[in-house]
Every structure is written in C-alpha cells, then in structure tokens.
Amino acid sequence: MKAVISVTGKDSVGIIHKVSEICAKYGVNIAEISQSVLQDFFAMIMVVDIAALTIPFGSFVDEMTALGKANALEIHTMHEDIFNAMHRI
Amino acid sequence: MHNRHEIHETIRMIRDENLDIRTVTMGISLYDCVSDDADRLSLNVYDKITKTAEGLCKTAEEIEKEYGIPIINKRVSVTPISMIAGAIPPHRMADLARTMDKAASTLGINFIGGYSALVQKGATRAAEALIDSIPEALAETERVCSSVNLASTKAGINMDMVAKMGHIIRETALRTAERDSIGCAKLVVFANVPDDNPFMAGAFHGVGEGETVINVGVSGPGVVAAAIKEAGNCDFSTLAETIKKTAFKITRMGQLVASEASRRLGVPFGIVDLSLAPTPAVGDSVARILENMGLERCGGHGTTAALALLNDAVKKGGVMASSHVGGLSGAFIPVSEDEGMIEAVATGALSIEKLEAMTAVCSVGLDMIAVPGDTPADILSAIIADELSIGVANTKTTAVRVIPAIGKTVGDTVAFGGLLGDAPVMPLSPYSPAAFIGRGGRIPAPIHSLKN
Description:
The complex is a heterodimer of chains A (89) and B (452). Chain A is an alpha+beta fold. Chain A has a single domain (2-87), classed as ACT domain (Alpha-Beta Plaits, 2-Layer Sandwich), CATH 3.30.70.260. Chain A has helices at 15-25, 57-70, 80-87, and strands at residues 2-10, 29-38, 41-49, 73-79. In chain A, strands 2-3-1-4 form a 4-stranded antiparallel β-sheet. The model of chain A has no long low-confidence stretch (mean pLDDT 93). With 452 residues, chain B is an alpha/beta fold. Chain B folds into 2 domains: 23-191, Anaerobic Ribonucleotide-triphosphate Reductase Large Chain (Alpha-Beta Barrel); 218-439, Anaerobic Ribonucleotide-triphosphate Reductase Large Chain (Alpha-Beta Barrel), CATH 3.20.70.20. In chain B, the strands form 2 sheets. In chain B, strands 1, 2, 3, 4, 5, 6, 7, 8, 9, 10 and 13 form an 11-stranded mixed β-sheet that branches. In chain B, helix 2 runs parallel beside helix 4 (93-107), helix 5 runs parallel beside helix 6 (159-175) and helix 6 packs across helix 13. The longest helix of chain B has 30 residues, at 236-265. Chain B is globular. The termini of chain B are far apart. The interface between A and B is medium-sized, with 22 and 21 residues.
C-alpha cells in the first residue's frame, strides 16, 4: 500500500528532513522522491510505503497537515488509490 | 507508478478547481416501520433512520481524509413517506416530517429527503394528506426535503395534482415568508422522477430499491471549465473529447468513494450520479463552462446547443467510469446555486423562457428560480405543466423548484446563503392560464409511451 505526499511552499532549510522525520517515526518507508526548487518555490512529491504504518492512516494525514501548517507549507497526503482511480483503467 | 503530471493534475483539480464529492447519500427503506399508530410509526421511523445511518458521517469523514477528496454532504433518503403513512390520521402526517428532522439532527446530516408522494396517475388518500401537509412540514423543519412526482411518460400528467401543487408552493412560500420563502427551496416536483437520485431536494429511496443503499453524487463544474479553457480554440469534436476525458476522471473518483463507503458501511452500492452540480462559489459554475465554450454570456443564443453538447459529453465520459450510473446524471442548471447563472439573470441575459429551453437538453429542470411573490397559484401550476410536458414528451426527468418570493418583485433578490445561494427575482408572463389549469383530470401519456 502506497501513499503520495506532496509538499509545496517557500523554500527553507530542512523541509525534506522534517517530512521524512515524521515518516520514519511512524514506520513509513520512502519509495520515491521527486523534488525541485524554482527560484524560491519548493515542490516535492514523495511516494511512500504505508504497509508498516504504526498509526491509523487518517492520523498520519493529520500529522502531515499539521507539519505543513506549522511551516507555512502546503502538504497533501493522499492514498495511492485515488490516483489509480483517476488515471488508470 | 504515477508521473508528476498526473499527481499534480489530481491535486490541482481538488485544490484549485473545487473538485469534490457532492454527496454520499444513504437510502433507507422504511417499509418495516409501518404502523396504524402515529406515535409508534414516528418512533419506528426515528429508530430505523438513526440506527441504519449511524456510521454514515464518520465513515464519509474517514474516506475524505484518507483520499484527500472533500465530501461536501452526507445525507439520507427514505421511502416516500406517503407510502408508509396510509393508516395514520391525515392531521398527524407532519409529525413524520418532524421525526425525520430530529433523526437528521441526531445523525449530523444537513438534509434528509423522502417527504414525498408519487401521484403521476392518481393520488391515494395518504398521498393527498402528505401533499396537504407539505407547507406545515417545511415551515416547521430545517433539514427535511419534499418531492412530488406529478407526471411520467407512461402515465401522462396528473393535472389535478399539478393544480394543487401551485397552491401548495404558494402556501409553503407564505409560511416561510420571513426567511425569503426558503421552504420552497426544499420542495421539488418532477416528471419521471428517478428512484435513486442522491441529490436534494428530490432524493427519496425508490419503491424498487433494497433495504439500504449507498448512492454518490459527484461534482466538478470547475474542473470541466478549466479543461475547456486549457483546450483553447479547438473544434467541437475536440471540445466534446476534452469534456468526456474530464468527466471520466471525475466519475472514477465518485466510483472509488462509493465503493469504499459501501464496503466500510456494509451497505450495497447503488449508483454514481454523474452530475455537474454547481455551487455559488466562484469557480464552481456550469454557466461559466458554457461561457468558456465561446458564449459571451450564458442565456444568449447558442446556450442550448452548448448545454446539449456538455450534457451528452459528461454522460459519455462518465458512464464508462462507473459500474452503475443513475440518478439525475447530467449538468444541473439551478439559478441561485450557480454564480454564473445568478450574474446572467441579474444582467438580463438569461430569461425563464431560455431556462425552459435549456431544460430540454439537460438535467433537471427549472431549478431554484425566484419569481415575484404575488404570482398566482395557477401561473405556478402552468410553469410546472410546461416543464413536466418537456419531460413526459422526451422521456426524461424534468423538475420544478420555484420560489415565489413573498413581498418581493422583479429587481429584488432572495438570499438563502450556503449551498442554496441567492436568486434575483425573475419576471414571468402576466397572461392567465387559469381556465386551462382549471380543467382538471389528466393529460394522456404520449404515443411513444406505448413501447411494448
């Protein structure tokens, strides 16, 4: 089971560290990272494996959203199924 | 795995283009609640609704969080109340509306549908009693929605009941006059009403449905409008393809949510309703889609053709994305609930006559239209008869949800707020249909109803 974490906002030191810290804390393995900085704008898409997640997925979403709010970033954490439904037949 | 473009597209649709699941509606049969004791019947109805839909809001909220897709409304529809209330005294009918209201409040849902009667051919005593009680029911409840099916392609149009509904709508408006006649925003009359519509105010749990069912209504006018804008100055085939692809993606999301809700609640999946349901929010308008197609203003010449193309492409795109499609499925054109429609009416670009023409090619009908408060009942009935004729003759669903704005006239606005929005009062033809409406009886079913 996978999920997609997307992070956008003003670039600053340690964004990836903060996101991956929460992933590690709850047993979430990072499968793929695609990240870019255009001028000051930070954008990252992270595909993570949530098979060994130690808390309910809903709570993990809350943690990530809270992290985004605390750091003026927009963080969306969504189950992979939504992308499968929309883009794969 | 998914590429960046796909991931960005999904996130953009939800974040910037107002893509959402408009409603997850649980249909509940109330047949087993029947009693000839009005108190007992109310108690049974309350218990059945609150027990069956207990987990609805919580489950929908979980799905919303996990998939990151907003689910705007959680709702319940029930067996048409007139079908379970045949043995109670007519004056106790509205008690059932109060019971539904209480159950909806307990569940935390914003609307409950099914204070309804099906009288396309004739009215039972209970159906008449229910219709008579609609003004009281809607004046004294907050969340109850009422609907009456007055016509079908098979049965024709029950003009006795059409005449009656003109008076009922007026009385409902009068009884909620201090709140801009909001009662009428929760009352809709139909031709060819679907049994599995998840959208209010017309939702009820149809007679051929099972014990419980989950129906989901998708939305996404903003997504379609954005896709058309991006497609630029293309020809009509490309335009239709663009809409189809977008409708497919939107509907797949509806199907996912419907299957998940069905699985988690242990309730069978019914249908996905592939409607483009607008809201008063900017960027969530069906009128703006038509304008993005190249019309200067929704309501001008060309609007009916644009809407027909849109409606057809939405269905073609959506139908492959879902295992079962039903309900109203198409583009909604409510006036008060669509920011672009409101502006078109306010600037004089969109008239009620044009709206009527538009309803011939889309779902559903004359929807959320405010008319002068002194409009007589027979004119309201004649508006209904016209609209239902379009449905009966074209074997499609049509409906009327019209609001006589008591104390207001052309140039004024009614303001409901929230999803119901605001509506400028529209002018009507002043010529009287009284003698026509007064004839009574039934308009026979059209010849093409004889398909056997």
